[in-house]
């Protein structure tokens, strides 16, 4: 698979100074030779890092021709619509999450903590707040809930 060839190229880039806190979130290769790489970094993803990773991948694809001469390559941070990968939870402590569990239950709450086994959310309604511990093995997907503050006039 093409992903298996690209992953070591990216991981090698992530050993360079300034990229040590970066990691792969997802790689999607479509039949029409389009490669989309989602990356993240514990310290955030400036555009210059995406450009640098893109150039490294592009150099490999041009040299190897595994996709032929014509392909499309996109390297970016994952959008808010992408589910979190395990490493992303830490940088989202304090944010609101929508968590879908494997048994189809959906829980919304503030991410309080993360450990090697799972996460802790503070679920609340208008009257009550309760802490819920969820194991990673029970989570189907988690997404950050984006809230926009209305400006008062």
What does this structure look like?
The chain is α+β, with helices and mostly antiparallel strands and 153 residues long. The protein folds into 2 domains: 75 residues, GMP Synthetase, Chain A, domain 3 (2-Layer Sandwich), CATH 3.30.300.20; 59 residues, SH3 type barrels (Roll). 20% of the residues lie in helices and 37% in strands. It is built from 2 helices and 8 strands. A 5-stranded antiparallel beta sheet has the order 7-6-5-4-8, with no helix packed on it. Strands 1-2-3 form a 3-stranded mixed beta sheet, covered by helices on one side. Helix 2 links the parallel strand 2 and strand 3. Helix 1 crosses helix 2. It is elongated, with a radius of gyration of 19 Å.
State the CATH topology of the largest domain.
GMP Synthetase, Chain A, domain 3
Radius of gyration based on Cα positions: 19 Å
SSE class: alpha+beta
Q: How are the strands ordered across the major sheet? A: 7-6-5-4-8
Sequence stretches where pLDDT stays below 50 over 5 or more residues: none
CATH class of the largest domain: Alpha Beta
| Number of distinct helices | 2
Order of helices and strands: HEEHEEEEEE
Number of domains: 2
**Helix percent band:** 10-25%
Query: What name goes with the CATH superfamily of the largest domain?
Result: K homology (KH) domain
Assess the beta-strand content as a share of residues.
35-45%
């Amino acid at each position: 698979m093409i992903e298996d060839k690209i992953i070591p190229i990216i991981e090698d880039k992530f050993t360079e100074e300034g990229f040590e806190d970066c990691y792969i979130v997802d790689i999607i290769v479509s039949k029409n030779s389009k490669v989309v790489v989602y990356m993240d970094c514990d310290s955030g993803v400036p555009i210059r890092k995406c450009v640098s990773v893109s150039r490294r991948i592009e150099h490999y694809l041009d040299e190897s021709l595994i996709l032929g001469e014509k392909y499309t390559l996109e390297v970016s941070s994952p959008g808010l619509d992408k589910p979190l990968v395990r490493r992303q939870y830490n940088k989202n402590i304090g944010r609101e999450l929508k968590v879908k569990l494997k048994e189809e239950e959906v829980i919304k709450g503030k991410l309080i903590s993360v450990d090697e086994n799972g996460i802790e959310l503070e679920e609340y309604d208008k009257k009550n707040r309760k802490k819920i511990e969820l194991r990673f093995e029970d989570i189907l997907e988690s997404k950050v809930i984006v809230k926009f503050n209305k400006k008062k006039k």
